[in-house]
Amino acid sequence: MTPSADAESLRLLAESVRTTMAGACGTELDAALAELGWLDMLQEMPDAAVPLVFGLLGQTGTHAPVLNDVMLHASGGVPGGTLPLPFTGGAWVKWERGEVSGTAIDDELPIQTVPRADPVRPEALAAGRLALGWWLVGTSRAMLSLARQHALDRVQFGRRISSFQAVRHRLAETLVAIEGAEATLHAATGEPDHLACLLAKAAAGAAALTGARHCQQVLGGIGFTAEHPLHRHVKRALTLDGLLGSTRELTREAGKTLRAKGYAPRLAQL
Questions:
Q1: pLDDT per residue over 60-75, tens digit each?
Q2: Which of 62, 138, 177, 201 could cross-link with 55 by S-S, CB 3.0 to 4.6 Å?
Q3: Domain ranges of the chain
């Protein structure tokens, strides 16, 4: 397959996945993705399938329990089931595949607290962190898009607020954080290294938290209302950041790892 044909195939696949996500959520989306060939994509082209599917989950604001599939596949298990997942603060949760009540933070996600489980295999943890990183980047881009459009539409003192330097700086800082996180994810994709995946997830979480803060400021009061979609993306970012280690926890873990090694390994060829 030629590079142009490959790019065209991925574009068509992305359109199919986006269309599927536009009409389903939760267990329905789980079934729709399976019918679309998600598990085959995960087996045959994970480096393309994971960024595509999880990035679009973030951009569309929908959800499905496919993180389980990524981690089960990475650990040599059979996708389609569930497994206990470490959560921030030493908690453990399970992302159910059925329709159950959600968490206090995000009432749409079927995540339930479970007793402490055995440690997750390193390869599964690395793959899961990469997948969550792409989801966080997608969510960040959705928040930035909402804030940017508001800045272009909102008029104050006879001027669009997109002309105000403070607003431009917040949007620019959000974009820089997102682009940096995405570059880190690309560097960690392919041959997943535990430290590289840890740092990529931490960078994606930091970008999402930065985006939530700046985009809320740009949107002002409208961003707090139930009618505006921003609050859903903010809640989603908080939940995803906590899964498999929060930004703060992962940063500390990275520091301990580097101190133990006594040097900083090269994680990307520049």
A1: 999 999 999 999 999 9
A2: 138
A3: 3-84, 122-261
